[in-house]
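#dry-run=false #mode=assembly
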Amino acid sequence: MKFLDEYQSSRLAAKLAHRISVSSKKPIRLMEFCGGHTHAILRHGIRQLVPRTVELLPGPGCPVCVTATSDLDRAIALARSPEVILTTFGDMMRVPGSYSSLQRAKAEGADVRVVYSTMDAIEMARVNPGKSVVFSGIGFETTAPTIAASIVKAQREGISNFHVLCSLKLTPPVMKALLDLGEVKLDGIICPGHVSVIIGSRPYEFIPLDHGVACVVSGFEPVDILLAISRLVAQIESGQPKVEIAYGRGVKPQGNSEALQLMEEVFRIDSADWRGMGVVPGSGLSIDPKYERFDADVVFADTLELALRNTPVIEPPGCRCGEVLRGVTTPPDCPLFGKGCTPEKPVGPCMVSSEGACAAHYQYGGHPSLLRAG
Amino acid sequence: MDDVILLAHGSGGRLSHDLVQKKLLPSLSNIMLSKLDDSAVFDASGRLAFTTDSYVVNPIFFPGGDIGRLAVCGTVNDLSMSGARPLYLSLSLIIEEGFSVSELERIVGSVKAAAEEAEVEIIAGDTKVVHHGQADRLFVNTSGIGIVAPGTDISGANARVGDKVILSGTIGDHGIAIVSQREGLKFSVAVESDCAPLSKLVAGMLEASHNIRCLRDPTRGGLATTLNELAGQSDVGIVIEEERIPVQSSVRAACEMLGFDPLYVANEGKLVAIVDADDAEKVLAEMRRNVYGGDAAIIGEVTESHRGTVLMRTKLGSSRLVDMLSGELLPRIC
Amino acid sequence: MRSVMCLAIPMRILSIEGDEAEVELGGVVRRVSIALTPKARVGDYVLLHTGYAIGVVDEEEAEQTLKLLEEIAGFSEVS
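#status=ok
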């Protein structure tokens, strides 16, 4: 498969690993901000291929994991409305809300359907005119333009029973918030691959400028990730942090202008509630009033208010997802990891989302002999 | 206007009799079934194997098969995985009112063809009809009886350190065939379900070696789940090599697109065998002679360390855990 | 499994009809939206994410990266 196979070459991977081990002198800490990277790093055993001097730390890159419990409760409440078909990407199904989950609500009779695309949700609205199809809009800047496109399409085609429950989040503001918090000292950041296809690399420029932290935008195949790590090591060793693109086949410094324009047309920037970080100003998107017919928060305001009255948000007791998301605790260090909290019986979202750091650690690296080869 | 199944067809009265006599029996006829007694009575001696499975696959017709073929192959294979020679099957149908009679005939035709290929007879059956909406089109149950030859000892608990792990062919075909139908994926060369009866493949393997420790078919949960089950039951470790696992390129591409790992995707015509190292090549050669074992490969071995878990050596030379499937990958694939 | 939310696969455009395209990877053919990549042409590779093409693959850049990688491979010969 072109543009995939070449970046899975074990020969190139071995060469890059060697290059990294030769050039990495001082201990450094790199954080990845994309669940896809966390997953790929564990799936390909990247930690075994880089020297001990390079520490890889997962950050708040999993859109499901950073979604606040209150937002999940809202989705579940809407799912329970008899006139609603709640559509969602598969990941959200098993995440525990305050009192239930989408999977549980479905088992109890709520109409919840997993889709692979917002286009499926629009189709569903078209063939179910008597129902309201609500799409659970969780994601970062990779997903945001696709949701914007779907709202524009629904308007153009006169589909009035399609709505989005918007919970979209932005990456550079949360990077800033995390760096400002200063809880964890970072030397470099593996910047998200597909978010950057949309926003480009320029939004990260404040990171080396204000914080002296190196940035490299990375793809997802093992060779991509090792190349990015190699570039980060080079920057850090030379003491010259900057923003580099190591995923040139997909990312331009200016990003995708059509996608950005569409986002600007449909959304406005708002504050957002991040699990583990609280409310971060300017870090989320909400639907612009001119598209409020498609905004589930507006259209179903009364339903939501009624359903959520007297139901306080309950965070799972003992859950350390927030700390894992900020890089303060690693999954194996969470006292519940593998004990009270497993993919079958998750306490928090990091263990249940397929790109959650805990789930990836559990799935690919639970065994002690695999953590940190020699 | 196409004939459809009505509630009356399940009532036990004349319409029921007509359904059985005119639509079902002709395809499935054999001496015992034709007697239409309340039970089939037969002689059998020696150790018997008995199994049951229900089939709720959606869609009921898919590339490479349908629920009828699946229902026969699934139960035949469960018997074969215990080292039994499958003999007899029962067939129960729960039909939603309004189901097309011609589609029912097509499914029964598949049952007949699969039974003939597997050399088993359907000797007992039942049909029920339920209200519209109470069974998603058609649910099928088959139970099966087989004979286990003396001296045969195949069990998930028998694996020993040093044994080789053999896979009979490409993984992920069935699950991808089903989901591609549901998700509207098209293929330039269609991915077909690998649904197949493996009784003859197993018979050949058992003749080639008396040192086959375990046999299991990796259905729901895929190869990964099956290997974990075996590692757990035998209390051993299993190591597999990523590069040795056969996957069709179109299945790999579909998995990339849908975010699946082929290790977890269902198969309905494949088996995993754990075999004494000295007999592995012999068994492999025998498997490759069978139409359903052409792509068979030794994919790994049983180890002393990390008991109860499965590790995979990636193409890059690193190792990672291969855990059991968590949650549900694909609903209603069998 | 991998979540669909970060996933984007390179697929080749076979045909375009308005703001939709038929794309192909390894024999799998799919109908997707090119609303976000209106300048994409038949024969281009696009990165596909949840049913939408989010960017056109820059083949020249891809070649440059592979060249760079080969150079690194050359310099990294273990003695």
